[in-house]
Amino acid sequence: MSRIHVTTTINGDETEYLCEPQDTLLDVLRDELDLTGSKEGCASGDCGACSVMLDGRLVCSCLVLGAEAEGRAVETIEGMASGEELHPLQQAFIDKAALQCGICTPGILVAAKDLLERNPDPTEEEVRYWLAGNLCRCTGYDKIIRAVLDTAADMRGAA
Amino acid sequence: MRFEAPTSPEDAASLLAATDNARVLAGGTDLLVRLRAGQVEPEMIVDIKRIAGIDAITSEDGGWRIGAGVSCAAMGEHDALGADYPGVVEGAELIGSTQVQGRCTMIGNLCNAGPAADSVPAMVAAGAIAHVVGPKGTREAPVFEIPVSPGKTSLAKGEFIASVYLPPRGARGGDAYLRFIPRTEMDIAAVGCAVNLSLADDGTVEKASVVLGAVGPKVIEAAEAAAALIGTTCDDTALAACAEAATAAATPIDDKRGTVEFRKDVTGVLARRAARIAYTRAKGETS
Ligand SMILES: Cc1cc2nc3c(=O)[nH]c(=O)nc-3n(C[C@H](O)[C@H](O)[C@H](O)COP(=O)(O)OP(=O)(O)OC[C@H]3O[C@@H](n4cnc5c(N)ncnc54)[C@H](O)[C@@H]3O)c2cc1C
Ligand code: FES
Ligand code: FES
Prior knowledge:
Number of strands of chain B: 14
Order of helices and strands of chain A: EEHEEEHHHH
Oligomer: heterodimer
CATH architecture of the largest domain in chain A: Roll
Strand order of the largest sheet of chain B: 4-5-10-6-7
Distance between the termini of chain A: 52 Å
Shape of chain B: globular
Bound molecules: flavin-adenine dinucleotide, FE2/S2 (inorganic) cluster
Number of helices of chain B: 11
Largest sheet of chain B: 5 strands, antiparallel
Largest sheet of chain A: 5 strands, mixed
CATH architecture of the largest domain in chain B: 2-Layer Sandwich
CATH superfamily of the largest domain in chain A: Beta-grasp domain
Shape of chain A: globular
Helix content of chain B: 25-40%
Strand content of chain B: 25-35%
Number of domains of chain B: 2
CATH class of the largest domain in chain A: Alpha Beta
Radius of gyration of chain B: 19 Å
């Protein structure tokens, strides 16, 4: 069976890869492209550790086939910082200890960034619902929610 | 396994018809989970999202046509659709997390034929019609007739649903969908209930539909529960009769998410509450 040739845009760069029909986008990112920031927690859409943006929509990359990315635009955690400069959410997660093992963190950051771009002033309840598909087994969520709310306030102040 | 992404409905139907064990891929939020779990081993996956126009929500003859590639998130962002059919939209928006919303489709939810599918009761209550494309042409079928039993649909080999049509809302109409889940988010309905109403000029219910999910092998039209609302203003007596009839119509199973007795009881409670919300919306009041 011949592999599928895919041309897509990842974090702004045109990228080509070969994949099997059953390979997920997460498989491709991690195993073909060495973009291992997106994590596999469950491979069934439940944990959100694999969250990426696909054509401007937050999705689980474990529930997208690699072949589906043809001609689309993918954004991953690797594209979040500008060079050495961390995104305010990334910095806040470090400063406020919003992570422990860090497995859930890339997915939560990608999801939280999308939330703040859509809604710069979310309520705590909105943040909690938005992130309901991102599971964390370490932090108990409180520090995560607070880091997102504080970053939102800072970013509004800076804007 | 092969992967195809046809750009016309005809090509999709001929690919599906020419292959044994081909599967349609919409949002993939059911299919990819089942693929990974080894529960399905299709010879071909046909991604329908490249078909021209399949991701559109269009106003048509006073109603709404929703393409098979429209994500539930996109439905939630469409204000005019939400104003006409808040119940249909709230059913679609209850599916999964933000990430799942970005991909899942209402038609995938329907074709997966799960008894607890959240978007199906409100579609059925709205009288939605599926536009089916197959190797021999197209046909229209009530959404109610698509699921047959858990995991099984009435679609023939080679057929897929290209869109669903919601009929004109009309003046003084409203709908609502409520579900009961053991958690507050990310869970499967133990009971779901949709109510769709149209009111006469004097504010009494002229047409009603009460549809139950998760309490039978497929979605249930609770005709007697609907009849209990006709001619009334959804006063307490009418709501009590509606709830009792909904409880009677439910045929749930015992499982870890609830006993038969509990689910029948909750069916009545949700029918009463959904009817009240639908009535408030039909009167043009906010709820
Ligand atoms: C974490 C998680 C949470 C979830 N929560 C919920 C929930 O709360 N409520 C709920 O109801 N569901 C839930 N689901 C299940 C799923 O997301 C929904 O059923 C969803 O609507 C399926 O749509 P899809 O477009 O992703 O379908 P797909 O996975 O693409 O397809 C589902 C099935 O339908 C077939 N199919 C798809 N489109 C068509 C078509 N146009 N014509 C013919 N056949 C077609 C496919 O071949 C497949 O068999 C959840 C899933 C996950 C992973
Ligand atoms: S790995 Fe994709 S949601 Fe868990
Ligand atoms: S920090 Fe360990 S899972 Fe969230």
